[in-house]
Amino acid sequence: MKKEFPRMAKAVKNQVTYNYYMPDLTKAALARLSTVHRSLKVAKSSFKKRNRQALKVRGRK
Length: 61
Description:
Elements (H helix, E strand, L loop, with lengths): L3 H15 L7 H15 L21
Helix pairs in contact: 1-2
GO biological process, one term: translation
InterPro entries: Ribosomal_eL28 (IPR002672)
GO molecular function, one term: structural constituent of ribosome
């Protein structure tokens, strides 16, 4: 997905600017693509927080 995004951005930029279709909307088109890409991203699963307090180790008496 990381390699796809720059390729898609380049394609969108080319379509908007080189086809003479409102070249002033390039930033808006890229922003829209960016938000769509961000919404499709899968959130990373968070790791469990480790208890950093000293653990009680039961020893022999």
